[in-house]
Structures are given as structure tokens and as C-alpha cells.
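Example for tutorial group B:
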């Protein structure tokens, strides 16, 4: 029979192992590409998704079922979800803005997880989806109900959790209210989005402290844009507060079409490098991430925004000389 002390040590180890596991939600194929002016070929998108899965990422948001009129880059959403080379243990969620988008996603027969979104700002909701925050919550509830009825998992996004480009600072109490509403709808997880990247460790800590006790932190993720270079620092604060899931985009791709001036997401390579240094387990092969990030940047003819990737690639180049 195991002694009481041994049992306590085992429980302690199990807890430590759990707290040391960190999940990266890769959003490069959707959030990273949606604002690109030049259409990225479908075959390139598919290869990007497949490469990301092969790097060890377990959640890869692949596209958005939004009207092509509003986001032309996502016009090939049906083809994307039908042609992905799906790996066991990997989830391939899609973003859906409304019931029509959900119906299109369901019709493919390939979608088993969706993400829906609301903003903690009336002004942003009106600019983004032409309705108030309360109306957006009602729409989201309808989408969640219909998705869950079909056995589809639902993840929720809250945009502008720190600040809004039209309305200024966001009241943390509004984020708490929306978080509770999304959980009541049946969302298994809520991603807190600093859409315009104005957050700092101080404002992020203030937000998370306001949510503590009202929302289970094991159901929260963070989504930081790096407009002011604060994304990694904000992630560290979130980790210290108990968060163990973060969204990021390969090579730092991204930006928001409804938030002028917002730069890309936190680069997945930078996040993975930092997490490795903190002793957190991601299951991700950093080398493959760096290769994938450089590959997609070359395909798109753009600069790689990942500092870690640039440093690793420079070091490799010097070693070859």
C-alpha cells in the first residue's frame, strides 16, 4: 500500500505536470492571413496548415466562414476544411460570425469545432458586425446553441478586452460579464483578445484580477497583438496568474481589418521559445516552427516578424559559413 507521504508526492507531481503543460492555439492561417491584400493561394494555405500540424501544434484555427465580400482572403473556406490533411489529436476549428456561417461550415461535414466572437466595446461591435454588444451576445448564443446541438465544440473570443480603437479603455467588468455569458452559452474556453495590442503587464494583471473568482482560469486563454511590443510580457503575466493557453500566429502574421494600426499577433516561434525557457511543456518542435515561418514569409514576400526565428536563422547561417 502506498504511504500517505508517497501519495501526497504523487498528487503534487500530477498537479505540477498539469500546471507545466501549455497549449498554443495557432491562428496564423486565419487571423494571420485575413488582412492580407494579396490573395494567398489555397494550396499554400493548405500546406501551411499541414506544416503547422506536423510541428506538434494541437489546435490550429484554419479559416473563417465569413462572407467573401467582407473578407476576400477567406473565400476558399470550404475547400480548406475539405482538403486539410488531418492528424490524430489535432483540432482544426473555424471562425463563424453568424448562423449563416455556421450552416455553411456544417454543410462541409468536416467541422467539429468553431470559434465565435463578441467585443467588449459597443463601438467596435458596430464597426465590425454592425450591432451593439448586447445584440452580438444574442447572435453568439444562437450560433452556440445550434453548434452544440450538432455536437460541435464552441470556443469564444472576446475582442478589445484592454482597449478599443474607437472607444478607449475597456472596463474589466464588461469583460467579466461577457465571459460569464459565453460560459453559460456552452463555450468550453474563452480567449481574451487585446485586439489592438495596447495592453501592458499592468493592465493585463488588472483585467485578470477582475476576472478571478468569477471565471475559472482553466477555461481562459489569452490573445495578444504586439503593436507596442508587449505581447510576450503580457503572456508572462498571464502565466503567473494561472493561464495555460495562448493564441499566436506563425511569423507574427496578422492584423485586424477593423482595427486600424493594429499589427500582427504574438509570433508562435517567440512564444514557443519563451515557454521552453520557462520549462513549460508545449509538445511543439521549435525547429519546424522556424522553418514553417520562414517558408510562408518567402511565399508571401514579406518580412518575418518573429525575433526568435530571425535569431535562430542568423545563427544557422553563420554556422554554415
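The residue assignment follows.
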Amino acid at each position: 500500500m502506498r504511504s500517505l507521504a508517497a501519495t501526497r508526492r504523487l498528487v503534487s507531481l500530477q498537479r505540477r505536470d498539469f500546471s507545466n503543460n501549455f497549449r498554443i492555439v495557432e491562428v496564423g492561417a486565419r487571423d494571420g492571413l485575413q488582412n492580407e491584400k494579396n490573395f494567398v493561394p489555397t494550396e499554400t494555405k493548405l500546406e501551411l496548415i499541414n506544416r503547422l500540424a506536423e510541428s506538434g501544434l494541437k489546435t490550429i484555427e484554419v479559416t473563417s466562414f465569413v462572407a467573401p465580400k467582407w473578407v476576400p482572403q477567406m473565400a476558399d473556406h470550404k475547400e480548406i476544411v475539405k482538403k486539410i490533411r488531418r492528424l490524430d489529436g489535432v483540432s482544426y476549428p473555424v471562425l463563424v460570425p453568424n448562423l449563416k456561417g455556421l450552416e455553411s461550415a456544417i454543410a462541409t461535414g468536416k467541422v467539429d469545432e468553431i470559434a465565435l466572437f463578441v467585443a467588449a466595446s459597443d463601438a467596435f461591435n458596430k464597426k465590425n458586425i454592425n450591432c451593439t454588444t448586447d445584440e452580438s451576445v444574442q447572435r453568439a448564443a444562437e450560433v452556440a446553441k445550434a453548434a452544440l446541438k450538432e455536437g460541435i465544440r464552441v470556443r469564444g473570443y472576446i475582442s478589445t478586452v484592454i482597449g478599443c480603437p474607437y472607444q478607449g479603455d475597456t472596463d474589466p467588468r464588461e469583460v467579466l460579464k461577457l465571459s460569464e455569458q459565453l460560459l453559460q452559452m456552452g463555450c468550453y474556453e474563452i480567449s481574451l483578445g487585446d485586439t489592438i495590442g495596447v495592453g501592458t503587464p499592468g493592465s493585463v494583471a488588472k483585467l485578470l484580477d477582475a476576472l478571478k473568482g468569477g471565471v475559472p482560469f482553466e477555461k481562459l486563454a489569452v490573445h495578444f497583438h504586439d503593436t507596442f511590443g508587449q505581447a510576450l510580457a503580457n503572456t508572462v503575466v498571464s502565466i503567473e496568474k494561472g493561464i495555460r493557453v495562448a493564441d499566436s500566429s506563425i511569423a507574427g502574421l496578422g492584423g485586424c481589418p477593423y482595427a486600424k494600426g493594429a499589427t500582427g499577433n504574438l509570433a508562435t516561434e517567440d512564444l514557443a521559445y519563451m515557454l521552453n525557457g520557462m520549462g513549460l511543456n508545449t509538445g511543439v518542435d521549435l525547429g519546424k516552427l522556424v522553418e514553417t515561418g520562414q517558408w510562408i514569409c518567402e511565399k508571401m514576400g514579406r518580412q518575418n516578424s518573429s525575433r526568435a526565428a530571425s535569431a535562430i536563422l542568423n545563427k544557422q547561417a553563420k554556422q554554415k559559413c
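The radius of gyration is 19 Å. Compare this with the pattern of hydrophobic and polar residues in the output above.
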